[in-house]
Design a protein that fits this description.
Blueprint (H helix, E strand, L loop, with lengths): L21 E5 L12 H7 L3 E6 L10 H11 L2 E8 H4 L3 H8 L5 E6 L5 E6 L8 E3 L5 E4 L10 E4 L7 E3 L6 E2 L4 E6 L2 E4 L9 H5 L7 E9 L15 H12 L11 E6 L6 H13 L20 E6 L6 E8 L15 H7 L33 E7 L8 H16 L4 E6 L1 H4 L1 H5 L8 H14 L6 E3 L11 H23 L16
Parallel strand pairs: 2-3, 14-16, 14-17, 17-18, 18-19
Antiparallel strand pairs: 1-2, 3-13, 4-5, 4-13, 5-7, 6-9, 7-8, 10-11, 11-12, 15-16
The structure holds guanosine-5'-triphosphate and magnesium ion.
Family: Belongs to the IFI44 family.
Protein name: TLDc domain-containing protein
GO molecular function: GTP binding
Length: about 500
Amino acid sequence: MTSPWGRSLGPLIVSSSDRAPPFTILLAGLASRSRNCKQEKFVKNRTRVAVRFERMAEVKTRLAKHEEKQLCQLLGNVRLCLLFKGSVHGFTPLAFHSKCDAQGPTLVVVYTEPGLIFGGFSNEGFKSREVLVKDEKAFLFRLNTGEKKDTPLKIPVKDSEAAIYDHSTLGPNFGNGSLTILCSGMQVTSSATAYYEFNAADLYGEDPSFVECEVFRVESIGDAIDSQWRKITWTAEEKKRLMDVAKNYKPALNSVSQARVLVVGPVGAGKSSFFNSVNSVFRGHVTSQAIAGSDATSVTTKFRAYNIKDGKGGKSLPFVLCDSMGLEEKPGAGLKTEDVPKILEGHVPDNYPFNPTAAIQSTSLGYIKSPSLKDKIHCVVFVLDACKVGILSEELEKQLRTIRSEIILHDVPHIVVLTKVDELCPLVAESVQNVYRSRAVEKQVNTASARLGIPVSCILPVKNYSSELELEYNNDILILNVLQQIMRFADNYFDNIPVERVDSSSGSAIV
Ligand SMILES: Nc1nc2c(ncn2[C@@H]2O[C@H](COP(=O)(O)OP(=O)(O)OP(=O)(O)O)[C@@H](O)[C@H]2O)c(=O)[nH]1
Ligand SMILES: [Mg+2]
């Protein structure tokens, strides 16, 4: 196959992970910025950009923080998702289109040996349409890599009728040849056209060769909503009130002293971290009793029923959080959905080592043959990574829906906790107080609701303790809000059990 310019094209690189969940999330140095800056000020005057990567753990962008900051000036409040890296996928049009087609607004960034960074943005993106595409928002740019490293050069499209030439045999082609990238290996070409007015030397100096090309999907985060769409009071008094609610909680049935809450969800979603976070709030400092972390398979391999104490050596709180192994797409890996009904019914003992290839049997070691009401699960928390709900694989969605059907059959109330909202939205990374003002969070809450068929009112965002060494009271308030909802829902479980149907000697529900 040859390009219109007669060059032969490289082999098609087939992507197996185009729609895969992002593997690594990198925030562009936002979390470390001052959390004290006034909310109003940053909402109105500042824009944020966050960078994340589609399942390419080993692939990192070359963009430095100050370069990302300049991109903020060009793009506004966005997240950049790395789709393509020439040195990994190949410097060919086919490799580019296989990774970058149909991704929406797209940013192409080119790096030269002497350190220049330039490229182009198309709001319409690429789809191998084989036509000239009108795009009023397209522009070319060069970051300022000089002494001051602040203001980037922006060259807006002049005649937007042919802002890009989107053709499967061409790489990114801005303005029908004004600037073409990946059409001639590791060299850009430019020629005078009416579509962009610029001096080639301003973009890439004298030498058209480059050493790297990265392409990002540009996801709009949008501005903050003026008022919180769920009202939360962010005060120390509110934290104390919520802690008291949790400490004084009493399940509505005398035979049960602690509500048992099952935490379930995909690998790496933040299940163990959620327990650690709740535990931290009551311990008074950040804890990591449950091992958390990232691995190809679930870090949690055992069923664990965690008691939470009111401070070190304090008395146990009236709820138990049960951590589980992560769900996986691959067959024979992760939590088996068949284990869930057994957990709900209280047959699975603490410390049970999950077997991804075989469901728990009544003959399994420690199997609780006649569980009582106190051993059963009274509320289920689905934990989902807020950054991944939109691109949850069909297989994982199927498993979650299967589990939900079992939960419904067992009459167990359930909620969804969306973790990592700090990675999802830079506004939240700046301050957790923005969680219910973030359009990105609101969008993911709606997406989770649509994908799992769970009402929006049952979906709560949370920021787990993950990198912090000290507690932060806004975080605590958000975590405690989730806990309050869990306890209310657990009560709904007890409400469904008529008192006369509970065997007072064993505490078992007579059903
Ligand atoms: N930034 C951020 N990181 C989080 C959050 N929650 C969890 N993490 C991180 O995500 C990674 C996975 O968290 P875990 O709690 O181990 O997830 P898990 O669901 O228990 O994972 P498995 O046991 O492997 O299924 C860890 O590196 C956590 O620090 C969050 O709200 N924000
Ligand atoms: Mg875990």
